[in-house]
Write a structure and sequence with these properties.
mainly alpha
């Protein structure tokens, strides 16, 4: 284990400064980032397996929706409490706990005999992912400062971009290797050796981030419960939105319950803080415009991009009849380009600031429009190639959004709150992913249900894809609106950079 210096402040247990050699610091960083990549990869590579799971386990639309969105739900529920716990105690221990649970649940998913077992395992897998991800961002906050932090977040964004975009390709390859019936199981089997390797590296290379403390651990259990009820009620109607005429309209009342729970949560957290206790959610971080706007941009952006990938995969497989492996390969250019531009963005963000993010969002708006145009107006045999070309442009633009926005969002956050601040940002991404995907899929499948009896299959899928992509365009427009508003605020204050 690399050496580290104890904190000099014994009065209270602050997050310690991690004193490591540059080599040890970057080794620990790559272990943490590999954990994030595994977490995101497991979300995106499952998308391409949905048709295979449907045929193998006779799963219905709601069950298929929950295979993806259930993972996102439990991921989001655990993020903030896990980030808070990481700030108070050892991030390394939480890494190991989360990775161990991720390994076990991957094994159960791979062996699942029916959809019930698969769904339960996916929910617990989301818990494991939610334990791990806040520790990644908290650790980066502690390991790096200044320009080096921007570079670290640039590499982090590149890794996440590759994992997001390469997931469908990897999923398609594994399905091709394993066959239509059991190929989807390889998507979970592959996690086991990868996670086992990362567990060993994490135990060896990750530093301790907290001095020992005799202070009682204050986790605000009432706040955790109210927070969980708020998120569950918010996401519940979207989890059960499939676009089918059989969807229960009463599910939207859960949004009213979510508002009520959120109001009670805010009241409780403020009262808890007034009593001198440490609340689950430090609302003071939202007074920082850099953080607040960064979270809003991230939430809107991730409401659009995963839905864009999923709609493309469904259109290419269902409408054009592409095999999963070829449908997944359309996103390879996005992965490569986003990795390159994330590195560039991470190095430029300290000099260019928010304009870099805004131009990236503009590029993604153009990408979404380009994908719809080529899907509708190119000959079917050329459509996958044309979409792949547009994806390269989108990858370059997307890389200028994720990592620079992450750097700007956390620039003014104290290191001692890095875990919970990072987890709130991640929570916004997960909620955005669930909501955006659900709305896009509802529009997509509603069009199919409405037109399938009257129109040719290709035309039906053209219309369904265009309908679903309306969601992508709206959320990207919202991200652009927040970015422009942030630019205006920074212009008034005279600071565009970190």
């Amino acid at each position: 284990m690399p050496d580290h210096a104890p904190s000099s402040n014994a009065a209270h247990p602050p997050t310690r400064d991690i004193v490591l050699s540059p080599k040890h610091r970057w080794r620990a960083y790559w272990v943490a980032v590999s954990v994030a990549a595994l977490t995101i990869l497991d979300l995106t590579k499952v998308n391409v397996a949905l048709p295979s799971i449907e045929s193998a386990l006779n799963a219905g639309p709601t069950e298929l929706q929950l295979v993806v969105s259930g993972y996102i739900l439990t991921f989001g529920l655990v993020l903030v409490p896990a980030g808070r716990l990481g700030d108070l105690r050892s991030r390394r221990v939480l890494f190991l706990v989360g990775l161990s649970l991720f390994l076990v649940t991957s094994l159960v998913c791979a062996l699942a005999p029916n959809t019930t077992v698969l769904l339960v395992a996916r929910l617990l897998q989301g818990v494991a992912a939610g334990i791990q991800m806040p520790q990644v961002l908290g650790l980066v906050q502690q390991l790096f400062q200044g320009k080096e932090r921007g570079r670290a977040f640039g590499l982090f964004g590149a890794t996440v971009g590759i994992a997001t975009a390469f997931g469908p390709t990897l999923g398609g390859l594994l399905i091709a290797l394993g066959g239509d019936t059991d190929g989807w199981r390889l998507i979970f089997w592959i996690n086991i050796p990868l996670v086992a390797i990362v567990i060993v590296l994490a135990a060896w290379l990750l530093p301790n981030t907290r001095t020992k403390s005799r202070r009682r651990l204050d986790l605000d259990p009432v706040g955790v419960l109210l927070f969980a009820l708020t998120i569950l009620a918010l996401m519940w109607p979207f989890l059960f939105t499939t676009g089918s005429p059989d969807d229960d309209p009463r599910r939207w009342w859960f949004l009213v319950a979510s508002v009520v729970f959120a109001a009670i949560f805010v009241f409780w957290e403020r009262r808890y803080a007034d009593l001198g206790r440490t609340p689950l959610m430090p609302f003071s971080i939202f007074s920082l415009s850099s953080y607040r706007n960064g979270v809003l941009i991230s939430t809107a952006y991730f409401s659009a991009i995963p839905a864009m990938f999923l709609l493309g995969t469904l259109f290419l497989q269902g409408g054009l009849g592409l095999e999963p492996v070829f449908a997944g390969m359309v996103t390879i250019g996005f992965a490569v380009a986003s990795a390159w531009s994330s590195w560039i963005g991470g190095n430029l963000v300290t000099r260019l600031g928010r304009p870099l993010v805004v131009w990236g969002i503009v590029g993604m708006v153009a990408t979404a429009g380009g994908l719809v145009l080529v899907a509708l107006f190119t000959p079917p045999e050329w459509t996958p190639w044309a979409m792949a070309g547009v994806m390269v442009v989108g990858g370059f633009a997307g890389g200028l959004v994720i990592s620079p926005n992450q750097t700007l969002m956390l620039a003014d956050i104290p290191v001692s709150s890095g875990g919970v601040a990072g987890s709130v940002g991640q929570l916004g991404q997960r909620i955005g992913t669930a909501v955006g995907t659900a709305i896009a899929l509802a529009l997509f499948y509603a069009t199919i249900y409405r037109e399938q009896a009257d129109v040719d299959t290709v035309v039906v899928y053209h219309d369904a894809y265009a309908s679903g992509m309306i969601t992508v365009g709206i959320f990207l427009a919202l991200a652009l609106l927040v970015g422009v508003a942030d630019l205006a605020g920074r212009a008034r204050s005279g600071s565009q950079t970190t």
